[in-house]
Amino acid sequence: MVETRWRRAFVSSAFAAALGLLACEEDRPKPTPSSGTPMTGPLAGAPRGEAPPAAQEKPAASAPEQSAPSGPAAPAEEAAGPSSYAIAEAESFLLSEPEDVGPAGPMAASSEGIFFITKGDGMYLARRKGDSFSAISAEREEFFRYGRGPALTKNYAYWISASGRLARSKRTPSTTEYLGPARSGARVHSLGTAPDSVAYLAEDGDVLRAMIWTEGKGAKVASPEGASITSLDVIAVPSFPKLLMLEGRSGLSPLHLRTVRFRKGGPELGPSSVLWVGPGSQPLTEVHGSTLAGTGGVALIATAKDIVTFGVAVLTLDQAAQSVSDPVWVTYPNGIDPAPIAIERACGETLVFYAIPSEPKPRAPQELRVARLGAAGFQKPEVLVRARAFNEISVAPLEGEAKPGVVVAFTADHRTWALTVRCKPQNATK
């Protein structure tokens, strides 16, 4: 969903409408499949009392093109798939070919493969074997195209159901549990603890609260009094994770931080502080957090810097996580909405994967790039894939592999694609 003229105003009604889009499926033409390997069946992750989606044998869609598109970009509904860009010439990484693994929908990458969540809270897994993926056997009507994928812990997947409930299912075939009310269309984030603890948004009248749900302890409000949180993420420090909470407004948008410590009685919240006050937010503006060597962590926000500039604000926390440096802006040739970003530690570095317009002209194709993330911003960016537009990116480390790297999944042109990005030998230190 490229917007060449992004909105400057953010109001609560627009936010609600935008998130409503995440729970709606548009009627689009069906991609024409070609012959290929039969797809795998679903995990039995339907809610109690409901049968999981029936598995069907179906040929896989045609592979992505190998040349970059030329000329003006066609509307997304006319595009058959993303086009690879300099796949064989990546300087720092070994890339597999992008593979079509299923319809566009709520998904999350893992070392096992790509997990999908259906409209009925069922689960599919496009399994990985080496650098290849087995596509799922599912129709596009089973998924909300713009829905949010699950947060994955060691044993569970957590997501927000279309009915507005925090849901989870075991990563192996299982029934779905519902854990409490939540904001439909919002994300869930793992705090990286055992037992499981996840952060998410829930409605309290006209206010959006940041919540923490912990195994055996239930849910607890985590946002500061009086704040309405529009996006959150976690800097997953094992002993005391940090909760980043963006309060998106039409004028100035505060970024709150709160440290969480876990006691026998459950999560204990530290004092809330305002790290930064940014410009006005858009309905789909999100905050992304990560650990970063030598710092207290980093926060990324893709937003309008001013009336003519769009980009990513890189906010580096001091080691005490009490303040941030002045933002370093990674500017884009044009504004896009959404502006998907994913961060993962691999190859001895913190890597950021992001979609960006390839050039300033309206409706320009977008590029999926990878860069090293540091206090100075995005360093040494490299293009992985080009498509008409990217709606979601998910990244996960390859676990137990002799050749380290990450699994990358993305939605583009009505489909979900996956590839592996491995470290070259000189850059393979974990």
Oligomer: single chain
Beta-strand segment tally: 32
Broad shape: globular
Unreliable stretches, pLDDT < 50, 5 or more residues?
A: 1-80, 84-88
Q: pLDDT average, as an integer?
A: 83
Radius of gyration: 20 Å
For the termini, the CA-CA separation is 35 Å
| Beta content | 35-45%
| Proportion in helices | under 10%
Structural classification: mainly beta
How many DSSP helices?
Answer: 1
Main β-sheet: number of strands, strand sense, barrel status?
5 strands, antiparallel
List the helices and strands and how they pair.
Blueprint: H1 12-22, E1 42-43, E2 83-84, E3 93-95, E4 99-103, E5 107-109, E6 113-117, E7 123-129, E8 132-133, E9 151-152, E10 156-160, E11 165-170, E12 176-181, E13 189-190, E14 197-204, E15 207-214, E16 218-221, E17 231-235, E18 242-246, E19 253-263, E20 266-269, E21 273-278, E22 287-290, E23 298-304, E24 310-316, E25 328-331, E26 341-346, E27 349-357, E28 366-374, E29 377-387, E30 390-397, E31 405-412, E32 415-423
Antiparallel strand pairs: 1-7, 2-29, 3-32, 4-32, 5-6, 6-7, 7-8, 9-10, 10-11, 11-12, 13-14, 14-15, 15-16, 17-18, 18-19, 19-20, 19-21, 22-23, 23-24, 24-25, 26-27, 27-28, 28-29, 30-31, 31-32
Write a structural description.
The protein is mainly beta. The protein has a domain at 84-149 and 345-429. It has one helix at 12-22, and strands at 42-43, 83-84, 93-95, 99-103, 107-109, 113-117, 123-129, 132-133, 151-152, 156-160, 165-170, 176-181, 189-190, 197-204, 207-214, 218-221, 231-235, 242-246, 253-263, 266-269, 273-278, 287-290, 298-304, 310-316, 328-331, 341-346, 349-357, 366-374, 377-387, 390-397, 405-412, 415-423. Strands 1, 5, 6, 7 and 8 form a five-stranded antiparallel β-sheet that branches. A five-stranded antiparallel β-sheet has the order 2-29-28-27-26, with no helix packed on it. Strands 3, 4, 30, 31 and 32 form a five-stranded antiparallel β-sheet that branches. A hairpin with a 5-residue loop joins strand 23 (298-304) and strand 24. It is globular. The model is unreliable at 1-80 and 84-88 (pLDDT under 50).
